[in-house]
Amino acid sequence: MTDGAGGFRFILASQSPRRADVLHQLGLVPEVRPADVDESYLEGETPREHVERLARSKAEAVFQREGGALVVGGDTVVMHDGGVLVKPIDEESAIEMVAALSGTRHAVHSGIALAGPHGIVSSVATATVQMRTYDRATAAAYVATGEPMDKAGGYGIQGLGAALVDSIDGDYYAVVGFPVTAFLGLLEDAGFRYDFGAITPHSTE
Asked: Could you give the C-alpha distances from 75 to 44, 69, 132, 164, in angstroms and in order?
């Protein structure tokens, strides 16, 4: 089928173009049905717990709405210097955010969940990113491209922001926002397999 999901409709419960791009890279063409869920932190909730809960909430909400589909949801948080980096609110805040990352390390937690006839399964992938050392003028020049404005942490590793990164410890795709290895593991857990451009149920033979 053109959705790449065997006999199932395959839905991405996110409007993130990065997540869609990764799925397209895998040869999968999901329907895009963003979920409307409250993204506030619960009292005492850790960032890892938060992204996994939101990924599950998004996938489950769309699955309940689009019965019979296979739905993947995700959420990502960037942790730096003990705090959470959200999307910048304007160019000045973006410059401050990008400049503060210079020469430092930060963690990226990406939650992912798969809802379908199997129920729901989920996991979290974490990567640590070491940024190279650059000056404020470099941060401002990057922000002037417009790329950072819709991204948690203020940079996009899959785009021009790659020039700011020195190294990654962990899953590159967790930093992009769609951890591929974790996704493939969830497919296996749910009774499916990835066949290089298609998702098919496990053979019962």
From this structure: 18, 20, 26, 23
Q: pLDDT, tens digit, for every residue of 113-136?
A: 999 999 999 999 999 999 999 999
- Residue boundaries of the structural domains of the chain: 10-201
- Tens digits of residue pLDDT in 153-171: 999 999 999 999 999 999 9
164: enclosing H helix or E strand: none
Give the helix/strand (H/E) hosting 56: helix 47-65
Listed residue (16, 5, 14, 8) closest to 61, CA to CA: 14
The helix/strand/coil state of 198 is coil
Cα–Cα distance list, 199 to 34, 42, 56 (Å): 21, 34, 20
| Mean pLDDT within 26-35 | 96
Instruction: Give yes or no for a contact between 154 and 108, defined as CB atoms under 8 angstroms apart.
Output: no
Look at residues 40, 41, 76 and name the one whose alpha carbon lies nearest to residue 55. 76
CB 74 within 8 A of CB 58: yes
> Does domain 10-201 correspond to CATH entry 3.40.50.20?
no
Residues with catalytic roles: 75
Indicate the pairing of strand 70-80 with strand 105-116: antiparallel
